[in-house]
C-alpha cells in the first residue's frame, strides 16, 4: 500500500500510483510555468500559494478520472493545471473577502502585500488558466465557463445570504454546490473527457465530483472548529472569527430556534459577539467542539461522501474506482 499526494490517498495498484504520481509531477511543472512572468514581482506573488503546497485535490481527481480512458492523452495534464490555477485564483480572492491572515500555513497574499496585490494576482492566475484552456478546445472553454459561473454565483449567494423564505441550511448547501462542487465536478469531467472516456463514464464522474466537492467543504467546516492545530491550512476558528455561517453554526442556530434551550441561545449570542477577542473565540470553539451541532455537521459530511460513493456504482471495478472510493473515506476521516 502506498500513498499518493498530501491528501493521504492509499493506492494498492503500483501501475496506477506511478501514473498518478507522474501526472501530478507534470502538473507541478505546469503550475510553475504558468505562474512565471517577465515581471519578477508578479512571479513571486503568483507562485506564493503554489510554493506553499496544498493537497492538489482537483488535479488528483483529473488524473484518476483520466484512468477510465487514455491517461496519457495530451490534454489531461493541461486540464489539471487549469483547474488548480482556477482554484488558486479563488483563494487569493477569498482571503481578501474573508480578511484571512493565513493560508496553507503561510501569510496570505493580502497580509504579505495588500488586498490590491492579492486581487490582481488572482486575476493574473485566471488569465493564465484561460490561455491554457484555449488550447484544449471550445467544449473545454464552454465547460470551464459554466463551472466558473456557478462558482461565482455560489460566492454571490453566500455574500447575499438566504432569502426570508429560504431555509439557511438548504441555502448553504446550494452555495457549496456552486462555490466548491462545481470546480471539483469539472475536474472529474475534464479528466474523463480529455482521456476520451465514454460519455456515460464522463457523466458518472461529474456527478461523483459534485457530491465529493460538497463533502470536502463540509469536512473543512468541521475542521475549522474541531481541529486544535492548523490541520486545514488555516488558523482554527477563522470562519467563526470572520462570522462565516458554516454548517455547524447553522445547525446550532436551527436547534436554538426550534428547541429554545438557554445554553444554545447563549452560545448563539457568544458567536454574535466580537470574536476578534482571542479569549471569546477560544470559549466559542470549546463550546462548539462538544455541541451536538458539530456531530450533526459530521453526519451531513458522511451523507454527502456516501452519495459520492453511490454515484460510482455504474463504473467497472478497477484501481481508479477503488482510489475514488478511497477519497470518500478520506473526506470522512478528515471530519473525524
Structural summary, described in words:
By secondary structure, the chain is an all-alpha fold. 72% of the residues lie in helices and 3% in strands. The strands form two sheets. It has a two-stranded antiparallel ribbon with strand order 1-2. A two-stranded antiparallel ribbon has the order 3-4. Helix 4 packs across helix 9 and helix 12 crosses helix 15 (292-311). The model has no long low-confidence stretch (mean pLDDT 89).
Question: Could you give a short description of this structure?
Answer:
The chain has 336 residues and is mainly alpha-helical. The chain has 16 helices and four strands.
Helix percent reads over 70%
Order of helices and strands: EEHHHHHEEHHHHHHHHHHH
**Uncertain residue segments:** none
Give the integer mean of the pLDDT values.
Answer: 89
Morphology: globular
> CA-to-CA gap between the ends?
22 Å
Count of helix runs: 16
The spatial strand order of the largest sheet comes to: 1-2
| Tally of DSSP β-strands | 4
| Largest β-sheet summary | 2 strands, antiparallel
Portion in strands: under 5%
Rg, Cα atoms, Å? 20 Å
Summing up helix and strand content along with how strands pair, one would put the structural category as mainly alpha
Amino acid at each position: 500500500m502506498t500513498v499518493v499526494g498530501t491528501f493521504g490517498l492509499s493506492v494498492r495498484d503500483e501501475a496506477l500510483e506511478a501514473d498518478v504520481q507522474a501526472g501530478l509531477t507534470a502538473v507541478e511543472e505546469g503550475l510553475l510555468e504558468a505562474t512565471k512572468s517577465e515581471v519578477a514581482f508578479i512571479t513571486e506573488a503568483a507562485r506564493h500559494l503554489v510554493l506553499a503546497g496544498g493537497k492538489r485535490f482537483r488535479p488528483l481527481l483529473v488524473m484518476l478520472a483520466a484512468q477510465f480512458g487514455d491517461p496519457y492523452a495530451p490534454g489531461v495534464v493541461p486540464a489539471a493545471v487549469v483547474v488548480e490555477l482556477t482554484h488558486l485564483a479563488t483563494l487569493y480572492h477569498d482571503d481578501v473577502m474573508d480578511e484571512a491572515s493565513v493560508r496553507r500555513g503561510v501569510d496570505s497574499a493580502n497580509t504579505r502585500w495588500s488586498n490590491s496585490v492579492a486581487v490582481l494576482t488572482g486575476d493574473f492566475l485566471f488569465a493564465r488558466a484561460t490561455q491554457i484552456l484555449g488550447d484544449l478546445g471550445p467544449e473545454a472553454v464552454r465547460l470551464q465557463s459554466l463551472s466558473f459561473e456557478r462558482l461565482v454565483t455560489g460566492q454571490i449567494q453566500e455574500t447575499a445570504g438566504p432569502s426570508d423564505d429560504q431555509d439557511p441550511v438548504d441555502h448553504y448547501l446550494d452555495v457549496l454546490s456552486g462555490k466548491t462542487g462545481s470546480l471539483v465536478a469539472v475536474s472529474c469531467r475534464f479528466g474523463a473527457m480529455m482521456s476520451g472516456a465514454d460519455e456515460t463514464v464522463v457523466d458518472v464522474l461529474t456527478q461523483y465530483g459534485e457530491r465529493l466537492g460538497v463533502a470536502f467543504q463540509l469536512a473543512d467546516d468541521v475542521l475549522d472548529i474541531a481541529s486544535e492545530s492548523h490541520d486545514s491550512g488555516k488558523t482554527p476558528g477563522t470562519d467563526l472569527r470572520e462570522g462565516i455561517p458554516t454548517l455547524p453554526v447553522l445547525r446550532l442556530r436551527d436547534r436554538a430556534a426550534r428547541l429554545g434551550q438557554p445554553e444554545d441561545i447563549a452560545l448563539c449570542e457568544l458567536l454574535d459577539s466580537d470574536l476578534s477577542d482571542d479569549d471569546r473565540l477560544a470559549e466559542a470553539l470549546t463550546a462548539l467542539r462538544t455541541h451536538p451541532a458539530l456531530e450533526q455537521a459530521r453526519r451531513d459530511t458522511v451523507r454527502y461522501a456516501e452519495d459520492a460513493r453511490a454515484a460510482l456504482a455504474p463504473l467497472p471495478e478497477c484501481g481508479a474506482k477503488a482510489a475514488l472510493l478511497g477519497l470518500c473515506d478520506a473526506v470522512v476521516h478528515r471530519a473525524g
